[in-house]
Design brief:
Elements lengths: L3 E4 L9 H14 L6 H6 L5 H12 L5 H18 L8 H10 L4 E5 L3 H11 L7 E4 L11 H7 L7 E5 L2 H10 L3 E3 L8 H4 L4 E2 L3 H8 L1
Parallel strand pairs: 1-2, 1-4, 2-3, 4-5, 5-6
Length: 212
């Protein structure tokens, strides 16, 4: 029996990865850098030093990662608070189903907690979540298991369920010993990553039937 469901945010709750990629590319272009979808996908689920090292590997040691990321995040922030980020198919229905069945929900996102809270508030989804764990609240980024273990808290990992869209997130959940369902967003998991999941579904609607 599932006692807690742990949600990633970007690309899982919100169709926000493409929004952030677009804004990041626009800001980076002003600095003379070209952000491609291929390179952006490599960064999905990462934060902190892990993300910093990857960006320097891709763009060179002079790449002003923190400055560009901050400006891109500010632009996404404005979009989220003014018009709201697009919510992925079936998410509202899944959250309502979990609420009706008294299954606690937690967000475990590589995005900093203050942004997660703002985006959930703006979308009206915050009421469904008991806790938010942001990437700034753990010492190691996905694909390490820290964020999912923090989200599980006192709940035994095998009694939780993680919902993820990214390869790094799937690996992190697997390392935490938590069953994970993948709902792909920008990239479909290759066979070796797919083997780490309990299932791969097209949308959150499928998760309702899976849990039932």
């Amino acid at each position: 029996m599932i006692k807690k469901v742990i949600f990633d945010m970007d690309g899982l709750i919100f169709d926000s990865e493409r929004v952030f990629m677009r804004e990041l590319a626009a800001v980076a272009k002003d600095y003379g850098y070209n952000v491609t979808e291929e390179n952006y996908v490599r960064s999905l689920g990462l934060t902190g030093d892990t993300l910093y090292k990857l960006k320097r590997e891709i763009y060179g040691d002079d790449y002003p990662h923190y400055e560009i990321s901050r400006k891109a995040r500010d632009r996404v922030d404005n979009i989220a608070l003014i018009g709201g980020l697009p919510i992925k198919s079936g998410i509202r229905e899944l959250l309502e189903f979990l609420s009706e069945n008294k299954i606690p929900c937690v967000v475990a996102s590589s995005t900093h907690a203050r942004y997660v809270e703002k985006y959930l508030e703006a979308s009206g989804l915050c009421k469904y979540f008991d806790k938010i764990i942001g990437g700034d609240m753990v010492s190691k980024s996905k694909p390490e298991p820290d964020i999912f273990l923090a989200a599980a808290g006192d709940t035994v990992p095998k009694d939780c369920l993680v919902l993820e869209d990214s390869i790094n997130g799937i690996i992190a959940a697997s390392r935490a010993g938590i069953p994970v369902v993948c709902i792909p967003d920008m990239v479909y998991p290759p066979e070796d990553i797919k083997a780490l999941t309990a299932a791969v579904f097209e949308s959150a609607y499928d998760v309702i039937e899976f849990i039932s």
